[in-house]
## 1
Amino acid sequence: DTGVSQDPRHKITKRGQNVTFRCDPISEHNRLYWYRQTLGQGPEFLTYFQNEAQLEKSRLLSDRFSAERPKGSFSTLEIQRTEQGDSAMYLCASSLKRDTYNEQFFGPGTRLTVL
Amino acid sequence: TQLLEQSPQFLSIQEGENLTVYCNSSSVFSSLQWYRQEPGEGPVLLVTVVTGGEVKKLKRLTFQFGDARKDSSLHITAAQPGDTGLYLCADSNSGYALNFGKGTSLLVTP
């Protein structure tokens, strides 16, 4: 399978715990994006990388959220001190920088439930 | 970030019926993408429309882009249960982030 993969698919945690999600993009894609989707809403942009550089992070929801892409391949999204309001689907997408229309390809998502 | 309005919010039809869903904005789209999302999965790209007045067809799905590039529609002919899902439109005016509408949730029953 050469699509975007995410791990885990589901995560249940207790309030106050830290969680980390992983995304593996399509291999030749140099841009990687993180989105959050809550019930009844479309995906909401959080941050993105071009290769290993994080070019936009001002829309991360709080300083409890951080993302890395250390070698320009896979990426991780970490949420520290989780809150019940963090419960959502976290989606990763990838694209080619040279794509004129910024067509993005999404992974299956990680469903986070904070108890 | 421009506001994308999608209508209707929910649609429940029987197999074989036709339907149209809409995506509107007060601002001009540089380009517009349509995605379909099944429950518990990520969105899947269906089509990108770029030119005002453009019509694209994908089997039983017909996508139109308004002449002024402020609106778009998706028409499904003879809907099937496999068409069930959340239909999302998104613009990329920022050049990197996709800006999504809330989507139209479609249920097609046999």
## 2
Amino acid sequence: EVQLLQSGGGLTQPGGSLRLSCVVSGVTFSNYDMNWVRQVPGKGLEWVSTISATGDTTHYADSVKGRFTISRDNSKNTLYLQMSSLRADDTGIYYCARRYTSSWGNWLDPWGQGTPVTVSS
Amino acid sequence: EIVLTQSPATLSVSPGERATLSCRASQYVSSNYLAWYQHKPGQAPRFLIYASSSRATGIPDRFSGSGSGTDFTLTISRLEPEDFAVYYCQQYDSSPFTFGQGTRLEIK
């Protein structure tokens, strides 16, 4: 069974930094692109960032570009999200998710349990 | 960017009845690259449907997806108590992949 176990997050002031981690087990981590998705209070799900299986290619939502950095350590089966210059509207629950690819396209499955991030003074 | 609009925002249905959730895309979604997820508070989102109508492994057959192009539907027949949750559609046809704003399915 593929499992994603998240850690990190918490409370920080505007302008602060946090790092999220996501440890993946039950699958060859280095074979898969990985993603971060967040749920902002009162709103739905928002894609945040994607990193390729090798870590060579990254993509970011415009809302976090230049402030967040996605990375991975395939030797540790771990995905990271370094968040800097945090703003109040970054508050939410952050999920890591594996991007599963098939001939029918690619989707997010499974997901981590979520990590709350609160940005407030 | 493809914008997905889900309706209704909230749907009240009694257990045992059928629920029909809609997802409309602002642009054509090719190859029916549309997925559905179920999300309960405090839990990880659960992958339900891919390619508009194919159930993911382990998903009960009371969940069914349909549609093509710009209009998609998730139908849950014979609602069970554990089915009450928020449901999201997501397109993976073009980057960035986007989600609808969700439909909250609540007990009537």
## 3
Amino acid sequence: EAGVTQFPSHSVIEKGQTVTLRCDPISGHDNLYWYRRVMGKEIKFLLHFVKESKQDESGMPNNRFLAERTGGTYSTLKVQPAELEDSGVYFCASNGGRAYNSPLHFGNGTRLTVT
Amino acid sequence: QKEVEQDPGPLSVPEGAIVSLNCTYSNSAFQYFMWYRQYSRKGPELLMYTYSSGNKEDGRFTAQVDKSSKYISLFIRDSQPSDSATYLCATHGSGNTGKLIFGQGTTLQVKP
């Protein structure tokens, strides 16, 4: 079984540019999550999809971040325009069944550097 | 006050030592607790998943939850250099949600 895959693994962009991160969850997992870790801080929740619907987007920092999951399969997270404070590692995770009592499986993350 | 507190370390031990990693949490309504291991440049990998108070053992790893003191622990017996990683505690929080609340992570180095 393939795990959660994320692309790209690393992205370096200039302030003001746009970046799109992609996540492919484990096949059959309805729940898909985005998390972010900025340097020196803990991993923080961004949002949760159930299939193609946003279940909880309480962690999204601001309207420069747009997440989509068309068709309930892979997801994209777009940052437009990027700011310096957006630098960090963006993780995607997925689980099946009930969201709250099923362990999350994480991808290896996308390391975003905004210069 | 953070919802989950974890000493970031770093923690350095000799091979074969018993390692104790700890977290505290703020809300007594939290029920599900996890320990993740994260190697450099990799994503968090689930080690242990526990519900409510008590101990859970898996090989060299034991997870312990003490709800009375809002304290969770991970013990590693006979530590190996391959155990060198960052260990993250996490909880689902108080609602029936998949959202995880993480501690900052403790960096562990096991020296041969």
## 4
Amino acid sequence: QSVLTQPPSVSGAPGQRITISCTGSRSNIGIGYDVHWYQQIPGTTPKLLIYDNNNRPSGVPARFSGSRSGTSASLAITGLQAEDEADYFCQSYDSNLSGVVFGGGTRLTVL
Amino acid sequence: QVQLAESEGGVVQPGKSLRLSCAASGFILSGYGMVWVRQAPGKGPEWVALTSHDGTRKNYADSVKGRFNISRDNSKNEMYLQMNDLRAEDTAVYYCAKTYLKKCSGSSCLQSAFDHWGQGAPVTVSS
């Protein structure tokens, strides 16, 4: 069981908007620790998509955005494209574990 | 550009040891914290260990504490993971990655995003 909970799968048609949730607790997201998001196309290395809740590294399209509220965070993708089909993971820090924690991942299917 | 390259993994018997290395290029290694993250087949990533930019502070996941040791040689642009007393549950692809934050140490490093990852080294623990 991952400390951060994500839905196993989400899907959407090309051009649509989808969101992926990442639910934590008062020892991680809820206490204010930053959330980061990664994209992993199967068989490849994770790629940083969003850092510090809502910042995009250079080269990441503005279609990707992040937010954090209370004990949860969300990744939104607008204008869905076929190339967005991948696994998405959230990451934060947990004060009880004194370590880095990841979500179990969400598989995005573009219909 | 930034490149991280892990050494080859391998197949190891339970109870045995294996050492992974991570060669860094395209950035000043001494300026950044570095981590090892593993991913078992079909699972999400699991953080394993972190070393501060100068190697003076190290942090470990409870699952590997006392068995794994992270180290680095900034003069050689390399980082290492010595894995001892390996167990079947250690089977995974092991990635090295660098922190986004510069010169971080301790909890600040642990809160950082990881902005570049290596290609991964598969490790299988099996008799």
